[in-house]
Design brief:
Organism: Sandarakinorhabdus cyanobacteriorum
Largest sheet: 3 strands, mixed
Number of domains: 2
Number of strands: 3
CATH architecture of the largest domain: 2-Layer Sandwich
Helix content: 40-55%
Oligomer: single chain
Shape: flat
Pfam families: RBFA (PF02033)
Main location: cytoplasm
Structural class: alpha+beta
CATH superfamily of the largest domain: K homology (KH) domain
Distance between the termini: 54 Å
Strand content: 5-15%
Region (Disordered): 129-149
GO molecular function, one term: ribosomal small subunit binding
Amino acid sequence: MPRSTPDAQGRPIRLQRIGEQVRHALAEILSRGDLRDDLISRTIVSVSEVRVTPDLRHATVFVKASNGDDEAVVKALGSHARFLRGEVARRLATKYTPDLSFRRDESFDAGARIDEVLRRPSIARDLTDKPGARPWKSLADSVEDDDGE
């Protein structure tokens, strides 16, 4: 009998749950300004995902910086990894706290590339059901429509 149920991607739900707990703890630490670093304090850092290894010893943290300087933020977070691990350990109720390694989250860039491809006239015309209908509607367009603009 398997120890934990896998999700649609085949990852155990327990690992996802622990990854989410680590993500929330890191987001709280970064948003409160507990980390004393000039670059990180003046940058909004989004922690989009945390992937934990099956032995719970290592976690890869995917981050995105608001100022676009992702590599510098990843390097700064990496230099504070021991401190962040200690802070996460205080907030988690697990036997082990994983070692943290930081990476730039490229999923936002991939989404932007997909949106760009879908906006091409040759692709957009195939996405409409009715002649004269507005072709591709991006997420940004949807938000503007919801605001009444």
